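Late entry, evening session. Most of the bench is empty. Finally got around to the prediction I had been postponing all week. Sequence below, unchanged from the version circulated by S.P.
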Amino acid sequence: MISQWWSFGIAAGAALAQWIVGNRWWWGWLVALAMQPVWFVYGLALEQYGLLAHAALFTLVYVRNLRIWWRDRGRAEEQLPMYPTAWYSPAPVLPAWVQANTDPQPLVQTSSPS
């Protein structure tokens, strides 16, 4: 029987991979792919066949994303700035219709009772 600690370990590995990808480092997908065999073994050991399907699906997604990020890695470095920390979030870019509507008039006209 696999110890309960395995689930914490592989969950931490998956979270680490997502953290790395969230920092826009393409090799985070490699970390995610490296965790997939562990998920397969864990699913087989527990006879959780839904977990095997989950691992297979995520393997396909990780391979797809790695291919896209690898192909676009030069362009992404030119277009997207790397923020100093993972906690920094730039100000949102407002749609043109919001930026154009800078007039402080109310959106709903209220009428006085007669």
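Two things to note before I forget:
Helices lie at 5-22, 28-45, 49-79, 96-100.
The CA atoms of residues 12 and 114 lie 66 Å apart.
Will write this up properly tomorrow.
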